[in-house]
């Protein structure tokens, strides 16, 4: 069941950690006394320049945790407790600006969410423009760099002014990745990026992710065990714990998680008995 | 913007080298940080502008209701509701004729409009195809027809052939009904379509034909929405003046026979409010207050039923 | 539990049929339906044929009314059109004595008042909607939106009365003299300060269009999917940047529909306008001039007119109908295609790199 991972280089910076989560709990709900806990007491480290898969069945908190890393819960009723550090920046500290966090930690969503009224070029540089990067020469350079990294440059270099919606699903998702990359984040969060795509397009994206991990820290939420084995260096398994609250059950190198899991629940999950 | 004409002057490997990445990263971070304050400020300023706009939008509402209440209350009295207008120059009197007239005229209009509206809505829900689409389109366009055109139409259809005996309350009712039907059709159709799909599926699974399903199952569930739509139609009709201007002729007397000329509240406001007489203007204000309360009660009632129904769905 | 509902239409008979009877000639499919219905409910059921007849009756009545409306108005207006020909639309002369009838001035005044009204209502309406849907906390936004929606329910005669008795003096005393003092702009506001006039009529129309603008724009803004917002947010945008770059562009077609529908309502408003626009029949030179719109012309001229003049007035109604129909149909077309934009694709496969064509 374990395919050998696609060609990738192991993280060049040895054991350095890019993102740490300490005792992170996320709750939802408007009323003070009616709060729902979505996921409880997560302790997780994302090693630099490696792909960490957040794996588990739906509703176990993996997406919730992912979104807490770039403060996407700010505009919802979600509340995040615990400490999350990107590098040495405590991202939920009182004087930390969420917008600046999000330029360091990029995100790609489940369905491609390009700006429908904009062209391909304008979509790619949208993040730059939002951050008031204006110089045209720089935008062109960043756009090319991002599109090359997303393996899209050759397809679109002659049609950058086309409306972005004309691309196929797989290309749109890659454009979303390019858009996130143009801002040069250190960390890239991917929330089930292939779930809306056909197998061919998925394979391309997976290839892309492996290549990007040579210089980016990547966290990938997936419920597809095979995908995790294919492309991730480390895996964090999320399952439903007591009281229907999500729990991080086990973390470790992907090969170990699948070959010799330590927790019986992990074992049950990876062998298909549950989930 | 044409970007194809600019050839790539970048060497790919250089572009993606760690040094270049680092350089670009610094530029972005720098720009992001230094612009944040300005971006936030702009956002706050725009938010302030939007709040100002909100206040501007609320001012007419407050002024309208405020003045109407203030000036209208002065003219209210028990006699106001029970007496007919006094002769010109004589103080006192009331708008009993207008109130009764409005009730009768709008009541008859509802009796005409509600069944027709329901029938058309059922047709639109049950049938598909081009005929239904055409009728829906017509109904939507009709809902935007100026009420003055409907008034003239009623005049042309009824008063012209019948002569002066065409001036009657029921002529006004007809005009109001024409106004109400598109509103009711749209509200009824929306209400019926909002019935949850599994209700449809369950009934259809029992072997019932689509139209039968529409009738029994859907109608019952859509009833609150239908009642709401009817109430909104009535609320709209109560306040309309133009359909009545050339159809009901008006009357200083209390008339309960709809086949005779009648008075209605909007007409009273229109004729009295435009006089330079302080007493008549005061009557106009008071009538406006009564009309406003009427319309608001109907509208709020409709909303309450609608939200009650959505909360207690099924 | 499902119960059948007998439809009561104007006292029609046949709302019940005996349980157990079947309409003659029914198919087995229908019979199954009947049996199922019998099992499911033990009440009376509406007779199929009567129901269908009543339903068709309603539809036919509706269609007959619409058709007769168009026909009767055009028919009655025909003499005037034949009398004046094309100049009915373009001529600015409206003189009953010489029997010269032209809608030109009324069309200009209608467009002017509606245009000015839109100029005021659109920015305020959109900004208010943004405030309500993006900035205000939910607890405040709800009641305030309801309040503005209720403004839409106020009868136009009440708005007209208030404008006539309250606004006219204010305009005459304060607003118009003030406007006449502002440099540059004051050239738009020459002439006597009467209070009534095109400016006030435009303000009244703006007040009446505002609730429509706010309500429909709010719907459009709320309709923008969370995904679109998140895209801008995740790239490091501030709250306002998200609204400006993702939400408002996404709501554009809804906003356009709001504008067209509001415009349709303003075009057709006759009563309130007739009370405050003053009634002048010559082309306006200043926004303080009195004027007459198509609607207010009908209100003012219809009763006293006869013969060819009456036909001409009905001709004005027809012209007004044409205008409002265009505005309404435009609005319907904008509302209808429920934004399927965004993720449609021209080609399902990968776009192969070709050298063809300059992009749009």
Can you put this structure into words, describing what you see?
The complex is a heterotrimer of chains A (275), B (314) and C (360). Chain A contains eleven helices and ten strands. Chain A has helices spanning 62-69, 98-104, 120-124, 126-130, 136-149, 153-156, 169-181, 199-212, 225-231, 254-259, 264-270; strands at residues 17-28, 36-47, 51-55, 79-86, 89-90, 105-108, 187-191, 217-222, 234-240, 246-253. Chain A has a ten-stranded mixed sheet with strand order 5-4-1-2-10-9-3-8-7-6, sandwiched between helices. In chain A, helix 7 packs parallel to helix 8. The model of chain A is unreliable at 1-13 (pLDDT under 50). By secondary structure, chain B is mostly helical. Chain B has two domains: 2-72; 81-313, Orthogonal Bundle (MetI-like fold), CATH 1.10.3720.10. Chain B has helices spanning 12-15, 18-75, 78-82, 96-126, 130-142, 147-162, 169-193, 197-205, 210-239, 242-245, 265-273, 278-311. In chain B, helix 2 packs across helix 12 (278-311), helix 4 packs parallel to helix 7 and helix 8 (197-205) packs antiparallel against helix 9 (210-239). Chain C has two domains: 27-84; 88-346, MetI-like fold. Chain C is built from 13 helices and two strands; from the N terminus they run H-H-H-E-E-H-H-H-H-H-H-H-H-H-H. Chain C has a two-stranded antiparallel sheet.
